[in-house]
Design goal:
The structure is a homodimer.
Chain A lengths: L1 H13 L7 H4 L2 E5 L2 E11 L10 H17 L3 E11 L4 H15 L3 E7 L6 E10 L15 E4 L5 H10 L7 H4 L5 H7 L5 E5 L3 H12 L1 E5 L13 H6 L5 E6 L10 E8 L5 E3 L2 E2 L11
Parallel strand pairs in A: 3-4, 8-11
Antiparallel strand pairs in A: 1-2, 2-5, 3-5, 6-9, 6-10, 7-9, 8-10, 11-12
Helix pairs in contact in A: 3-4, 3-7
Chain lengths: 290, 290
């Protein structure tokens, strides 16, 4: 919708501060004294970001984990979170899930706000972290000649979502309780030329990395580890919610964490993304656009 | 509602980190390296926190100014804000108001999130600041023998709200565009024993300060500067949205900024708050509870 994109452009124009990569690049980077602070804020909206039947404990988990994943992509160590919570049903389970995810990551709840409202309820989370190394990785640093890597697999969240949607009883943990790759992000940060988390789908996120870096990326679809049956390979490449790290390394460098080489970075061609040598003409159908 | 207060208590129980004063005390205080970072997050909800007919530019102003006021109460210098925005109508005016308030305070937009949703729309803002001095003022430091002070006047926002509600054409700026007392907060922070901003009403906020400090506070209602006719004095003391600073000083100390002495701190009596010598039996009717 053009009104919306004009609005987002006007926000980006306001965000002219050097630290203000947040609107384009998931997390803001702020120098304070001798420290580099990373800040990220995400909202979850009922009926938009989670199923109405969702367990509220899973909603709390996802709200925290997705923000921590943004910190992971910056190689940051989380220092705490602030919660914006619209009061309503499910509060007890939400508090339980919040306690679980904060304990899992060893991250304190620092504060926030509770408000009255109504359906659709919305929730905000701000995460603050400290960059473990400098420079802080961004999407924009990939260079022609670099190799392209992915931690873990994609497609597990897709299967989890489908299990829930179709009530098959199959394991849905990967969708309900995504994991932020914090340790991997911290180990990778000093070595990568570019890094981001795969929140919206491998193909759309690789497209964004290529655009931000003004390069072209080629992905070998067969090399991508998938958690789904082979017949679902292309779906797995388009589905989001896996929160793995996508990163580029200078040629010849090996990552210090478990990861798979899935492609390469080239000088900018006529499109940002090639899949098995075929140019992808536009972003449509590559993943979750929002 | 008991379910809500149980939920908020469970959040407070989670917030056991030393930095986690945020849920009880408006802003979180975090030591990072040699710096003291202040973090605050507030939400505004359509139909709850602003009139449906509001100018979206004023909504943006208020969202930013109220969070900066929380920083002011900590004597902090703002470093930036992150915005959580639910897309919908009024975006152009919102962006204009956001530009105005950020320019007014010289604060950068660092990042945030835009989401789709539906009415009632909600908006979140996180502000980050750096404490100008240590210790960082809290609500909990007032001591028996201290004097109680207020910057500016109360009641202006009440008159502004009524002017808008009744479409009288009278000036409504104080309600629509509250001012955060940042310079005053920074000047006061090294000297006060306790400080907070008056967001919900002078009486209810003084009650909270007394509770947090485990003291009793006496207010001389006639000494409180009000921006309203004398017949509205008690209403002005109960109305919020003025965002003045309420603070305590050791006896004999004078504030370095324009402020009025409105009362005193005593050892804890049988209620936290006395108005003109009369005990206020409970919080009911003292201001905006949320």
């Amino acid at each position: 919708m053009s009104g919306e994109s004009a609005f987002i452009d006007s926000l980006r124009a306001l965000a002219h501060h050097p630290a203000a990569r947040g609107l384009a690049d998931d997390a803001a980077v702020l120098e304070v004294g001798g420290e580099t602070i990373i800040l990220t804020h995400d909202m979850l909206v009922e009926n938009v970001h989670f199923l109405p039947s969702a367990d509220w404990a899973d909603v709390a988990w996802k709200l925290v984990a997705t923000n921590l994943s943004d910190l992971a992509a910056k190689g940051a160590e989380p220092l705490g979170v602030l919660l914006g919570f619209m009061l309503g049903n499910g509060q007890e389970r939400f508090a339980e899930g919040l306690a679980e995810v904060l304990e899992h990551y060893g991250v304190p709840l620092l504060g926030g706000d509770t408000v009255h409202g109504g359906a659709p309820r919305s929730f905000g989370l701000t995460a603050i972290g400290r960059a473990a190394g400098r420079p802080v990785p961004a999407r924009s640093g990939a260079q022609p000649g670099d190799t392209l890597w992915l931690t873990g697999e994609v497609g597990a969240a897709m299967l989890g979502f489908e299990a829930l949607r179709d009530a098959t009883g199959a394991d849905s943990t990967a969708y309900r309780r995504p994991m932020a790759r914090l340790a991997e992000g911290q180990a990778l940060a000093p070595l990568v030329t570019a890094m981001m988390d795969v929140s919206d789908g491998l193909l759309i996120d690789a497209w964004r990395l290529a655009e931000a870096s003004r390069v072209s990326i080629t992905i070998d679809s067969g090399a991508v580890p998938i958690a789904a049956p082979e017949t679902r390979r292309l779906d797995a490449l388009r589905w989001g919610d896996d929160y793995e790290l996508l990163f580029t390394l200078p040629a010849g460098r090996c990552p210090p964490v478990s990861a798979t080489r899935i492609g390469a970075v080239e000088a900018r061609g006529f499109v940002p993304l090639f899949l098995d040598g075929e140019p992808l003409a536009n972003r449509e159908g590559l993943g979750w656009e929002h």
